[in-house]
Amino acid sequence: MRTWGLACVLVATLAGCGDDKPNNGDVTPDAPDVEEPDAAEPDAAPAPPLRNAVALEDAALAVEALRVMGGPVANSAENSCRNCHSLTRQQLSYWRALSDTALASCLTDLAVGSKDSALTMLGCLRAKNTPTSDFQTQKLGIYSAAAHLPWFQHTFQIAYGDTAATELARFGAEVGMPREGLPLLTQEQFDIIAEWFARGLPYLEDTLPDDPPPQTCQPGVSAAVGAHVAAMETQGWRALNRMNQMAMFGCGAETDPKNCLQTQVIVDGQEFGEGWDMPGLGHWRQLANVEYETAFWTRSSPDGRFVGHGVRDMNVAGSLILDLQRGAHRVVIEAQYDPNWFPDNSGFVFQGGNRNVCGQSVLTSNPDVITTNEAACARISSVGLYEHVGRALDGGDYFSIDGEFISDDGGHSPTHHDPFASFGSNARLLFTPLLWTGTRYAARTPIQLATPFEGDSVLSPSARLVISRVEGPGAEQLGFVLRKVNATPTGMTYDIDIPEVARYCISGGKPAFSYDERWVVFHRYVTNADAIDLGFTGPNDPGFLPYREQGAANVFLMELATGEITRISNVHPGQYALFPHFRSDGWIYADVRDPGAGREYMVASDAALLLE
Fold first, then answer.
1. What pLDDT score was predicted for residue 127?
2. Integer Cα distance of 51 and 110 in angstroms
3. Which of 6, 128, 289, 532 could form a disulfide with 133 if both were Cys (CB 3.0 to 4.6 A apart)?
4. Which of 464, 519, 511 minimizes the C-alpha distance to 487?
5. pLDDT tens digit string along 284-297?
6. Which of 139, 134, 98, 96 is nearest to 121 (CA)?
7. Any idea where the domains of the chain sit in the sequence?
8. Which 3 state secondary structure label does DSSP give 521?
9. Residue 5 pLDDT more than 90?
10. 524-533 contacts: CB < 8 A, separation 24 or more?
């Protein structure tokens, strides 16, 4: 009988390496039998370290960690993690997300100050926090590779006393890695791996070759996401715009956004919108009745006053921006597509014209036509199509990103499938820093980053997060990947790295961040898989037939820190709620295409405000 150990850095839900085979080895922790009080004795031996700091430089640390794990470096271990798992960038980034969460959520008292603390930490590692619930590897991340090492021996001894050996053996059988036959990690080996993950996997892209096409999606949300959301609650652009007293459309003197837009008609009382509202999630309200066909996406200014989109009608020379403050007055803009606004309401981008980046004064001067030749407009060629923009929170530079994209202009005719995600191994993301000169925007040197198999990327308002759609087999979308943006000024440009901090295994169109960066919102086309969620017995239910024939699209909210999604619309067959996005105060705007009625509706929802 062998002693169980954890040489493979496994996280749960991964198949193979004997996942279905229990580890039947014996475990005899080298810890004394003691009478356990409710708290650790004052003179009890201190807890050994979970990990020891390693002094290697980042580049050397990356190589050494991969060597221990069996990665594609010289003299790497033959019997190690690679026996069970593909050591890809995606895989390691996923393990990092789980590991960060383990430390932030469960392993919170590494000194193991009391029996209660030890029990709380170990309970947190179970599927349910009950004494009989199974331990889960995804609750540990890479720390599953330390389950046989002194810190866990000590913690189980403090928690369980005389029964510690039995509980530790169960722990090893349920989460110990590898399952069979591979050598254990020593403390020194684990320290190297843990140090690399604790630093955020520096030099990951430089050390590992490009990933193969992803085949599966493994969900995981790093503790870094929750920390970011918590910081943005008081520091993000929603808070800053409120502090700067940004005047929001439809609010008047109201300071609570829930009380805004109350004079806009509730669509659930209209024939075209009967039943759109979801119980407990507020109302969809009509902003404008559009008697023409829009093209591609719709986006709005942070204050909610201006709504821009391309136009398919041949009698419109360019695109339109609706000024809701002037009764949805149509402002013709001599551009074609991809409207977007900077989060401080200082300017906007609209592609396909003579110039593509303009100051907000071009709009607030109440024009009827914008040529993009106005003095506050500039041509910045490095700001490419399907761009998204943000601004540093400290009053610093503006940023635009663009990369590979899939055009999404569905709903003009029956559409039964979310956009494909054929992005490829050579996908890149281009960051363009922008400086406001006092009269117009000017570009700094762009930065290009590799993002294999990712596209339709969206920058958060603070320019600190990027979310992208991920390609899977057959160019189907596997999910969304969330990356943290670390931007360090250097000369006239920036050094930027974008480590993965979360992966969400859901499908949908290109999303949009809320201004407090707690949520993203996206549309999803109705497929057979949605039949039960829509209240039918299945895709063959006669009541579902109109959806199968005419198609539809609904709007979904996702909370970044949890990955939980909520459907917030219930449109009729043949109606398409598309391109949802936030304005600064938390209201969601969307475009509903209704080709059967020959019109579209600009609408707004307070669903996110009611979920706060």
1. 73
2. 10
3. 128
4. 464
5. 999 999 989 998 89
6. 139
7. 1-209, 229-610
8. strand
9. no
10. 524/418, 524/553, 524/554, 524/556, 525/410, 525/415, 525/416, 525/417, 525/418, 525/551, 525/552, 525/553, 525/576, 526/416, 526/551, 526/552, 526/553, 526/554, 527/416, 527/417, 527/418, 530/554, 533/567
- For residue 183 the two structure tokens come to 């050598």
**Fold assignment, 229-610:** Neuraminidase (2.120.10)
Report the SS3 class of residue 70.
coil
| Contact present, 114 and 96 (Cβ < 8 Å) | no
Of the candidates 428, 13, 482, which has an alpha carbon nearest to the alpha carbon of residue 216? 13
Rounded average pLDDT over 421-450 = 91
Pure H helices in 161-284: 164-175, 187-198, 204-207, 223-235, 237-243
Q: Comparing 83-97, 135-149, 443-457, 587-601, which segment has the lowest mean pLDDT?
A: 83-97
Q: Which amino acid is at 279?
A: P
Query: Residue 392 has which token pair?
Result: 């540093």
Question: Structure tokens of 504?
Answer: 């969400």
Cα 244 to Cα 517: distance, rounded to the nearest angstrom:
18
What pLDDT does 128 receive? Answer: 72
Helix, strand, coil share (%) of the chain residues, nearest 5: 25, 25, 50
Euclidean distance between CA atoms 577 and 571, whole angstroms: 7
Q: How far apart are alpha carbons 152 and 520 in whole angstroms?
A: 38
Instruction: Give the C-alpha distances (Å, rounded to integers) separating 406 from 2, 292, 301, 421.
Output: 53, 24, 24, 7
**Cα atoms in the 13 Å half-sphere on the side-chain side of 291:** 2
